[in-house]
Amino acid sequence: MIDPFGRHITYVRVSVTDRCDLRCVYCMAEDMTFLPKREVLSLEELERLCAAFIDLGVKKIRLTGGEPLVRRNVMSLIEGLGTRIGDGGLEELTLTTNGTQLTKMADGLARNGVKRINVSLDTLDPAAFKQATRWGDVAQVIDGIMAAKAAGLHVKINAVALRGINEHEYDRMLEWCGQHGFDLCLIETMPLGDVSEDRTDRFLSLDVVRARLRLRWTLDDTSYKTGGPARYYNVRETGARIGFITPLSHNFCESCNRVRVTCTGTMYMCLGQEDAADLRTPLREGLRDDALKAAILEAITRKPKGHDFVEERLNQAAVTRHMSVTGG
Ligand code: SAM
Ligand code: SF4
Q: Measured from the CB, is residue 262 less than 6 Å from ligand 1?
């Protein structure tokens, strides 16, 4: 699949549920209303959808959410997709998780061919974690991360940079990640969905964070790229990597290789734009996948050149859907 700007689309992020067991302040309102079940694709439908993307040349699938690991029986989907790794055309199956279920599920992930996962952890401090997630217990997540490590999964920690919540913790987190061999990726908050608190108060520029980190750590430039928005450095003192995702300060769209599908089968060609394609109708109407594949290919022809997040508009929710809908 090649879009109108010559970009090869080889990566799809699939949200398997809009539900979550946490309520991160930048992501969800506390009293979120979730989708009725009939609107959400079944696990079988999700698998057919992913299979169509793989047939069309997708090499990497990331499951996300909401929290992907709270979807009931999600392991059966992971098992099905796991069989496509290698000769089946898929090069990588991965997921982004908040880590709360990993003590139970890390082994199953590893068994089904998952090699690396991203775990969102904004802080190591129990009180700050509760403040960021409203409900979470950081010890449960850290146990989950250690279970993942023990299962042989490569872990990357994602932390959203939040003024007044974790802004004094990055040195400690970098050190902790280095000790355990985890890469760390810091993310700027993005204006997605109404979350009931003022996001401009929380916004922290990663240019400032990087400059502060450089007072203590040696960040060596690296050519390491994932095709995504992160800019990576090698941390000389720890041997691990640190990435910075700065969607607001810098443009990363030229190298975009991905599309996103929500748990209702809506395909978004760009995280920062409203244009979308309905894949649920062709999925539910046809027994064969021709119409589904045609709908995907048609949507790719509409992939926009880039997003238009602007810092001044941070609190106006540039896009009305929450990150838990498109999955990040
Ligand atoms: N529940 C899983 C988790 O937290 O990892 C997967 C879904 S979550 C929506 C995916 C990522 O999006 C998380 O790393 C989260 O921190 C990030 N995220 C959510 N809302 C965001 C926002 N407004 N700006 C930047 N990142 C956000
Ligand atoms: Fe849930 Fe992830 Fe959103 Fe936090 S960021 S509320 S864990 S979906």
A: no
AA letter at 287:
L
Backbone angles phi, psi at 47, to 5 degrees: -70, -40
Q: Pairing state of beta strands 241-245 and 276-278?
A: unpaired
Q: Can you give the pLDDT at residue 204?
A: 87
At residue 136, does pLDDT exceed 70?
yes
Ligand 2 in reach of 27 Cβ (< 6 A) = yes
User: Which of 98, 145, 160, 202 gets mutated to test ligand 2 (max ligand atoms within 8 A of its CB)?
Assistant: 98
Picking from 279, 169, 159, the residue whose alpha carbon sits closest to that of residue 230 is: 159
pLDDT digits (tens, 9 = 90+) for 54-68: 999 999 999 999 999
Whether the CB of 132 sits within 6 Å of ligand 1: no
For 147-192, write each residue's pLDDT tens digit. 999 999 999 999 999 988 999 999 999 999 999 999 999 998 876 5
For residues 242 and 233, the answer to whether their CB atoms sit within 8 Å is yes
Ligand nearest to the CA of 120: 1
Report the distance separating Cα 123 and Cα 160, nearest Å. 9
Backbone angles phi, psi at 103, to 5 degrees: -60, -35
| pTM attached to this predicted model | 0.92
* Residue 9, phi then psi, degrees to nearest 5: -95, 105
Any idea of the CA torsion for 58, 64, 69, 70, to the nearest 10 degrees?
-130
DSSP assignment string, 266-322 = EEES-TT---EEE-HHHHHH-SSSHHHHHHHHHHHTT--S-----GGGGGG-SBSS-
**Separation CA 254–CA 31 (nearest Å):** 37
What structural domains and CATH numbers belong to the chain?
A: 11-326 (3.20.20.70)
Structure tokens at 217: 């750590």
What is d(CA 243, CA 224) in angstroms, rounded to the nearest whole number?
10
Q: Quick one: how far is CA 173 from the chain centroid?
A: 20
